[in-house]
Amino acid sequence: MNRLGPILLAVLLLVGGCVDLPGEAGPPPASRLLAGTFQLARDPESPAAIWTRQNVGGKSPAFEPIEREVAYTPVAHRFTVAEPDLTQHVHDYLAQAAKQRWMPMLVAAFTESGACPSERSPAVGDLARGLGDGKAIVVLEPRLLGGKCADTARVTRYLNASVRQLRAEAPNAFVFLDVSAGGTVDEQHARLISAGVAQAAGVTFGVGGYTPAAQLAGPARKLYDALAAATGRSDYFLLADSSRNAAVVTGTCNPRRCQDRTGLGAVRPTGRTSASLAHRPRGL
Q1: Domains of the chain by start residue, with CATH
Q2: CA distance 247 to 117
Q3: Do you know which SUPFAM superfamilies this protein is assigned to (predicted)?
Q4: Which is deepest, 10, 87, 139, 196, by most CB within 10 Å?
Q5: Are 27 and 168 within 8 A, CB to CB?
Q6: What is the DSSP letter of 77?
């Protein structure tokens, strides 16, 4: 293994009352991201999975490729504040994955694009209660850090408090902060430190974007080194989203060449990747 240790520049598929602040939590789970026989979870609630269940035994020529290349592809599920019962949904989602010995992947997208977060979000507490002691990968608020909210201090306070709360109340969750909004390595480093990356499991890149993982590798390595020097930790995981396959587009939907034959915008993870994430962009 190279000097980056557990870094995973993985092929990803990205499918979005006040609470008291918890005390200081310990470091993230020491176990590997995928320990034992756990595999990354498929999303039984994805459109492809629902379609295949509805068309079992049918004669559609699309059934086999959709089942194999989309429905069976590990993918994350997007949770928002619009959930009627966020805690129960998260709990049920984790329970279903646990039965299959799958590692579920969740995207916690509680802040609308362009908006600023509340200082403390009830949704984070609801998420933590749903996670409980279960294992899961949680990507916290993609594109919020360094994004369109002008009140950067509020963003970092909110993310810092959210990471600490999730670490304290959902101790087996792997919580990731996201730097997909861009910026230089120095800017991303400063934002992550302020946002509580010392308590997080790692960092995600390129969520909903078009940059190939190979292009992210250099900046990711530099960011990893900077975080390790600042926090004294050398166990961060780095995950990169390649769902749009680095295609150049002018709109918000996945480009045609980035989609497989089903037109659902998913591509199969390649190589010996250890982790995969999925995000369905708006407009898909």
Answers
A1: 75-258 (3.20.20.40)
A2: 31
A3: Glycosyl hydrolases family 6, cellulases
A4: 139
A5: no
A6: E
Q: How far is CA 125 from the centre of its chain?
A: 18
- Cβ atoms 181, 253 nearer than 8 A: no
Q: Tens of pLDDT along the chain (284 residues)?
A: 333 333 333 433 333 222 222 333 444 554 556 555 557 777 788 787 888 888 888 888 888 888 877 777 777 789 999 999 999 999 999 999 998 888 898 999 999 988 999 888 999 999 999 999 999 999 999 999 999 999 999 999 999 999 999 999 999 999 999 999 999 999 999 999 999 999 999 998 888 777 776 778 889 899 999 999 999 998 898 887 756 544 555 555 555 444 332 222 222 222 222 333 333 332 22
What is the pTM assigned to this prediction? 0.76
Contact 278, 42 (CB under 8 A): no
Strand partners, 39: 102
Comparing C-alpha atoms, which of 196, 270, 261 is closest to residue 240? 270
Start-to-end CA span in the chain (Å): 38
Where does the chain have alpha helices with state H?
Answer: 47-54, 63-66, 86-99, 122-131, 152-169, 185-194, 213-231
Structural tokens at position 101: 């010995």
Helix/strand/coil percentages in the chain, nearest 5? 35, 10, 55
Q: List C-alpha distances in Å: 175 to 189, 202, 257.
A: 17, 7, 32
Which residues lie closer than 8 Å to 99 by C-beta, 6 or more apart?
none
The two beta strands, 77-79 and 105-108, are parallel
